[in-house]
């Protein structure tokens, strides 16, 4: 799944009880039953250390940056520390990490800056599988005469049509924008291979890793991508966005900014005053994942090694939950699961899936489940091109189930029981 990770030194069994103790919100009750948070693809719950970090910032460091007094210096250190944490998360240098409002806003800003360098007739490649935040910012450059080409999918398993992608990358291509994993059907794209294709054509590679980041280790050095964006609130942190950019590109392209702001990357890309309390939470989210890794493998040394150990453990655990879920869903009459369902190919997908149950409206199913304390999402989740391509948009989209490492087998069984009840009703 994605880039390889280090070999284990001393791996313990996955301790789901310890994991769940880290997340206070998992204590929520709905009609006398514990809530089952299967809504992670739209935003995960956060561990206590993230909550504590945000609160601590407000109590002990609440000030703007670069002042000649204590709390301002503490804010500077908070940002430096979080940038270093995200550098370990991405496997890059700290000066290649940019903070922003969210991935969508970051991508629009980056597209505008890159667009300054493009000419009419230059081409950008996007895909049908992506969230619109990795489509609309690039399509906005059509106003400048840029041509946007969209790669199709293989409908049977909701994977990218790589033959179509290779046809659409030409000598005119200036940038290829691809998601690491689909937020609707869970497909993991071969982004390292696609990066090589883009670079062979002289194009830049932009990866939307928002949906992959909760499930798999990121390694921008191994991928050799030019830019990669993700959202901490999808990997157990606060509502912000982060961007990795190769230093040479962050220094080459000129962002839109106010005149007094620094021209030095990465700060020049961070428009206005940042949400500094949430940046503190980003650092804490990375440290939570590292702490999880150390709990699973006490022999690791560095934070990066701890992240590798954590993702190795959560990937194995989530795959077990996914296997249990798909096996159960396949026994329900009129059930249609979108994407890869063959367990032998689960390395090509993450633990997010979407389904339809006959002609029943997904909103109706989501409400039925929500009333029973099972939280899922319905609709298109901004994967508009994919919803339209599958002929689902006019029928309410799909029901989406997202499993992350704080979910349990018991929650999967509750979900399956409720879906069986709904189907027979």
Summarize the structure.
The protein is built from 14 helices and 17 strands. By secondary structure, the chain is of the alpha/beta class.
Description:
It is a single chain. The chain is α/β, with parallel strands linked by helices. The chain has helices at 16-21, 48-60, 70-90, 103-115, 136-139, 162-168, 191-200, 220-223, 247-252, 276-296, 303-329, 362-370, 384-389, 409-424, and strands at 29-30, 33-34, 36-37, 97-100, 123-127, 147-151, 153-154, 159-160, 173-179, 204-208, 227-230, 241-245, 335-338, 352-357, 374-375, 377-379, 398-402. The strands form five sheets. Strands 4-12-11-10-9-5-6 form a seven-stranded mixed sheet, sandwiched between helices. Strands 13-14-17-16 form a four-stranded antiparallel sheet, covered by helices on one side. Strands 1-2 form a two-stranded antiparallel sheet. The longest helix is centred in the last third of the chain and has 27 residues, at 303-329. The radius of gyration is 21 Å and the shape is globular. Mean pLDDT is 96; it is low at 1-8.
The SS-based structural class is: alpha/beta
Mean pLDDT value: 96
What would you report as the Rg, rounded to the nearest angstrom? 21 Å
**Would you identify the regions where 5 or more consecutive residues have pLDDT less than 50?**
1-8
Tell me the helix content: 25-40%
Query: Numbering strands along the chain, what is their spatial order in the largest sheet?
Result: 4-12-11-10-9-5-6
How many β-strand stretches?
Answer: 17
| Quaternary status | single chain
**Most strands sheet:** 7 strands, mixed
- Terminal CA distance reads 38 Å
Give the CA-based shape: globular
What share of the residues does DSSP label as strand, in percent? 15-25%
Task: Please give the count of helices.
Answer: 14
């Amino acid at each position: 799944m994605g880039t390889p990770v280090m070999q284990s030194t001393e791996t313990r069994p996955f301790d789901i009880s310890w994991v769940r103790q880290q997340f206070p919100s998992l204590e929520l009750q709905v009609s006398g039953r514990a809530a089952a948070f299967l809504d992670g693809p739209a935003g995960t719950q956060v561990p206590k250390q993230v909550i504590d970090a945000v609160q601590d910032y407000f109590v002990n460091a609440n000030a703007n940056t670069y002042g000649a007094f204590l709390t301002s210096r503490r804010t500077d250190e908070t940002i430096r520390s979080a940038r270093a944490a995200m550098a370990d998360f991405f496997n890059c240098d700290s000066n290649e990490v940019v903070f922003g409002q969210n991935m969508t806003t970051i991508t629009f800003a980056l597209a505008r800056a890159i667009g300054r360098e493009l000419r009419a007739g230059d081409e950008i490649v996007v895909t049908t599988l992506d969230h619109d935040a990795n489509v609309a910012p690039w399509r906005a450059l059509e106003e400048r005469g840029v041509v946007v080409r969209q790669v199709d999918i293989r409908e049977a398993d909701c994977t990218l049509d790589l033959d179509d992608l290779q046809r659409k990358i030409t000598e005119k291509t200036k940038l290829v924008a691809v998601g690491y994993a689909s937020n609707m059907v869970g497909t993991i794209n071969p982004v390292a291979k696609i990066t090589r294709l883009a670079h062979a054509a002289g194009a830049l590679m932009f990866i939307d890793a928002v949906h992959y980041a909760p499930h798999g280790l990121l390694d921008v050095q191994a991928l050799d991508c030019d830019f990669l964006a993700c959202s901490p609130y999808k990997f157990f942190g606060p509502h912000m966005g982060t961007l990795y950019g190769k230093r040479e590109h962050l220094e080459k392209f000129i962002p839109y900014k106010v005149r007094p702001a620094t021209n030095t990357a990465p700060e020049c890309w961070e428009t206005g005053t940042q949400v500094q309390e949430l940046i503190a939470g980003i650092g804490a989210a990375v440290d939570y994942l590292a702490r999880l890794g150390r709990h699973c493998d006490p022999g690791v040394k560095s934070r990066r090694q701890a992240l590798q150990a954590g993702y190795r453990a959560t990937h194995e655990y989530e795959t077990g939950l996914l296997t249990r879920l798909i096996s159960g869903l396949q026994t329900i009459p009129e059930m249609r699961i979108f994407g890869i369902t063959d367990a032998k190919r689960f390395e090509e997908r993450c633990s997010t899936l979407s389904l339809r149950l006959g002609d029943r409206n997904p909103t109706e199913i989501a409400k039925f489940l929500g009333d029973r304390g099972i939280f899922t999402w319905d609709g298109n989740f901004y994967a508009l091109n994919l919803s339209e391509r599958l002929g689902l948009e006019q029928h309410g989209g799909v029901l989406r189930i997202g499993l992350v490492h704080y979910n349990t087998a018991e929650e999967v069984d509750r979900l399956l029981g409720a879906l069986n009840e709904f189907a027979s009703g």
